[in-house]
Every structure is written in C-alpha cells, then in structure tokens.
Amino acid sequence: MIEPLLAVLADGKFHSGQALGKALGVSRSAIWKQIKSIEESGLEIYSVKGRGYRIPGGLDLLNRELIDDALDSDVSGKLRLIDIDLAIPSTNAKAMAAVYQDGHGSLYLAEQQTAGRGRRGRNWASPFASNLYFSLTWQFSNGAAALEGLSLAVGVALIRGLTRFGINDVDVKWPNDLLWRGRKLAGVLLEMSGDAAGDCFVVIGVGINVNMPEAAAESIDQPWVDLQQVLGVAPSRNRLLAGLMNELVPVLEQFSDEGFVSFREEWQAANAHRNQVISLNLGNRQQLGICRGVDQSGALLLEAEGKLEAFHGGEVSVRLA
Q1: In this predicted model, what pLDDT tens digit does every residue of 184-230 receive, in sequence order?
Q2: Which residue segments constitute the domains of the chain, with CATH numbers given?
Q3: Is 119 a catalytic residue?
Q4: Is 264 known to be catalytic?
Q5: Which residue among the candidates 119, 164, 183, 239 is catalytic per the annotation?
Q6: Is 36 a catalytic residue?
Q7: Measured CA distances, 129 to 68, 85, 122 (Å)
C-alpha cells in the first residue's frame, strides 16, 4: 500500500485520511499505520488535524515510464530491465544477487538504500527519494585485466551526462569520485562476478547527491555538494537518470571494444588533482608525490624524487604542497 499512498502524497498537498482511505480502498486507521511506516524511513510528513497529511515540497518519485520516455531509442533497446524498489539494502547487492538470472543490461534503482556502500565498505548516505542510487549490470569479455580503467571511463560518462543538464566544473578524483569545486557530488562502486580470465559481469553502482536532506547530511564526514546547491533547483531524477544512461551505455560499449585509452585525455582534462602534491594510501603505507594523471590503462601516475611510478590501487588524499 505504501507505493500508491506515496504516489498520492507526492504532489505536496494536504490529503485527509478519509480521502486517502477512499482512494486506496482501506480504512483511515490503515492509512495512519502506513503514514507511521513511511515516517520511520526518515521521510517527513506533516499531519494537521482537520486537513490531513502532506509531504512538504512533494516527492519526485522514480517512474519507469518517465525514464523510458527520456532514454535515447538505441539506449532503451539495450536495457533489458529497469527495476525500481522503494527501499532495499543496496542496489549493488541486488544486482550481484540477480546477475546470472537477469543478465546483461539490467538496471536496478531504489528510492532508498538502507545499507548503501561506497569504496572500502564505507556507508553511503541514502535518504528516501532524495538522490540517485542505481546499479547497471554489464557483461565483458577478456577477463579482469581488460577492465582496468573502467571506473575512470564511467566517471567520464557521468560528467558528459551531467553536462547535458548545465552542470559544469565537475572533476574526477582517482579512481571513482566526482567532485564539484572540491566537494563530493557522486561516487562509483564496481563489483565483478564471473571468470577472471574470460567472460564476466560487472555491476556498476552509482550514487549521486541530488537533493540531500539536512538530517541525512549530518552523517556525512567529508565536504559534499548536491545538485540542488549547484543548480539552485534539483533536476527531475527521472530525466537525470535517463540523461546519464544515454551517455553511460555508449561509453560501456566503446570501452568493451577499445579499453580505457579512448577516454584517457578526457579524464586527464577533468583530473581534480592535476600537478598537485597528493598522498596515496596503500594499506599500511603512504606514497607522497605529484599527481601526473593516469597512464593508458588508468593507473595513477605519481612523480617522486624525479621518478614517475604507476599505481593500480590505493586511495588518494590531498596534501598541501
């Protein structure tokens, strides 16, 4: 019952319990119970005696038809599934569990993730119907080695998609974050399943801050930004998702044929730490050096003591020169 109830309340107007019950064919007490359940998800609902219930500001709910209408026809034909949940632990976890059942070109979305993850198991703030959380399953050949640089190519695709909406000044932080003027806007999490030396599936998980509620922002431990702040008004999440997919799918197809090398220069141009002194955290040690971008495989290039060295793993933090 929650989904149709949210669909009615999405307009941001007051609806009496009696009217909601009549529309959904249930009692007023059943509506009250569902309202309490929705509030437990963290969504704010105003309840005013004599007027009913309303969601302040309304909701921009994900909608398959609206997404499909905004997809380019060739991209739409390559997505065999668009799956939308109200609340699940993680879109990546669901995609990984269904990868061999649903297969290539399956797109999973959620209004809320209760256990959203970033790199290295970090929590990803995932409030209800506020941001974008999606995972796309894609099949590749030639094993894991051919996938090096994929997260960087995904970052290029996301920047292209954001540019469609007038969102400029977006940079990439190696290997998988998007920054707007130094603050985190989006993150990418890749997970692989299959033959490390042959055919395999990659689940490409993406989280983008669209309109972060203040309560959810309190749990974020780094500088962040959302599209509401960037643009002054949050774009439609359905149109935004479609715009991103219209760039991501062609990039994945090109990457499958050509690898990362075709996207290297575009990534270099958006490198947030170009020629800056950075620290690369490598487990129990750190490597300090000047960031010289990436090589043709997507490995990070650090210059230290006059020598250039390539690193295929690790986590970047910025140090003042």
Answers
A1: 999 999 999 988 788 899 999 999 999 988 777 777 778 999 999 99
A2: 2-54 (1.10.10.10), 64-268 (3.30.930.10), 273-318 (2.30.30.100)
A3: yes
A4: no
A5: 119
A6: no
A7: 19, 11, 21
